[in-house]
Input
Amino acid sequence: MNLKSLIKKIENKYPLNLAYDWDNVGLLVGDFDMDVKKVLVVLEANEKVINEAIENKVDLIITHHPFIFRKINKINTSDLKGKLIHKLIKNDVALYSMHTNFDIAFDGLNDYFMELIGFEDCKILDITNNEVLYKLAVYVPTTHVEKVKKALAKSGAGHIGNYSHCSFSSEGIGNFKPLEGANPFIGSAGEIESVEEIKIETIVPQKVLGGVISSMINAHPYEEVAYDLYKLENKGSSVGLGRVSKLKQSISLQELCNNIKEKLHIDHIRLVGSVDTKISKVAVVTGSGADMVKKAQRVGAEVIITGDVKYHDAQDALDIGMSIVDCGHFDTEDIFKDVMKRFLDEIEEINVVKSEVYLNPFTTI
Ligand SMILES: [Zn+2]
Output
């Protein structure tokens, strides 16, 4: 499969524009026109992972942590990063990273964590983006109404909640005079024409706006398509970091920790709080989420599950009556391999393998 086509499928589900400004996501090394047969998914890429990819004839490595993050002035073999980039290019291995866009997106890392632990009916902890919506109104001769409606729906217009193909039609008369040089579908140059037309109004999210307008123009018979486009105050769907879930019945922190240890296959968890504390609402931020403790409390959670908790984060949490389950950065994110493999396995043309390199820099003894 062509790399550009594969990336299009990935970014359709996990758009790059969801990532924070400071992040570095997308195709970081590689040729968009190359052919991809085998993909390796892994939390991050180091020399062992790159060697693993080369030995296994992998064409593309997909990481969660950005392989290139800090500014690079030179790519040569005198430093490790330069050496690895050089090695990737020399061996025709591309590298793609999906980081905070994958944390934020639906069915990304945080949603997968919730699914794995068995938390249902999840809400967003910290909204980062509200989808911008547009109203599109187009004037169509009666003969082409169904064709234009179909094109609008197929390209992503007209979705409201669990409904698709939403539009409103009203009848009217379209008036126009083709000028010299025009090639009108109806009427002739220099004569005012009046045509029975239908005004179709529909709603379009910003992310599909370009595609919707070009599909509409393609389906419309007129040389010059008359349409109005205006930004709405209505809020579209929201996306954001972290998830919150209200439990069906309260459980103790001990029970919560036992469940997490079992599902993540880990032996140790650091708990800030008392094992007997009963909780009924949990927040999750995979990776580093200690700075979200207060936010989690504001939305009613009694505990936040995350990694990278420092001593003073823990003290501050206890002071305000919050508990923290610190599973470690690695153990909340190594599941990236599982969720990405599940997503990519739907694409028939590629073979997806999970890295077997163990990447956790910490050992608990
Ligand atoms: Zn991370």
